[in-house]
Prior knowledge:
The protein is an alpha/beta fold. The protein is 44% helix and 13% strand. It has helices at residues 12-26, 45-51, 78-83, 98-103, 110-122, 141-152, 171-178, 190-193, 209-224, 227-235, 240-254, and strands at residues 2-5, 36-39, 57-61, 88-94, 126-133, 158-163. Strands 1-2-3-4-5-6 form a six-stranded parallel beta sheet. Helix 6 (141-152) packs parallel to helix 9 (209-224). The longest helix is centred in the last third of the chain and has 16 residues, at 209-224. The relative contact order is 0.09.
Amino acid sequence: MVIANWKMNKTIPEALQFAGDLRKRFKEINTENIDVVLSPPYTSLKALSDFIAGDNIYLAAQDLFWEEKGAYTGEVSSTMLSDAGCKYVDLGIESLDQKVLDDIRKDMDITIVKRAIELLNKYGIEPKANIMFGASPVETKESMEMTIKEVSNLPINYCMFSIATPFPGTEFAEKARKQGFAVEPEINELENNLSPTEKALVSYPDLPKEELEKAVKKANRRFYLNPKRILFQLKQVNSLKKLKDLILTGWKVIK
């Protein structure tokens, strides 16, 4: 699966133009065994859903509200996303330790995450979680272990584990440099060292970079070597090539 999250970018005409250009490019390459997923702002979902119908391109929402309906101004429910043609929702959970979420000002309650996943599964939308280690100095090895355990027990089939990156110009980068958490000299050559699923560019006194890198490997193994998830992935296989690709991708993730 490859997801392009557009954040707060592209109007509806721009989104359709981009999808049209993407369609032309896909005629030149084989994407039969890859789920290509576009994650645009809410405003473009329905227009894109109609535009890409029949293509090997799917839609993901960037977020959702945890209730099915009600007087929640500006919110979008799982039923609305299903109606708009979404196959996935890209959930930026980051951590299942409430102290970490509070420290990075995530403004999210862990119980809400579980409720949102429950609703997505109810309406046939695949939740794709994102867990990011190292985003806060209050995180510990024990809290990472807890997050790995909790997310592995969630009723989801996809999760991306990564390490927080102090991108230039962000509050996180400024804080990392000021407090000495940034890994030198690698942080000064970000274009040559950017690999958030493998390499840590932050290191804390009680949580060194080596522990962060180990956590990602451990999380991938525990999550994806679950028998139910292995069975789920095998059910998606409809050709020998897809089986080969699945084995190679799986090996890269868990090695």
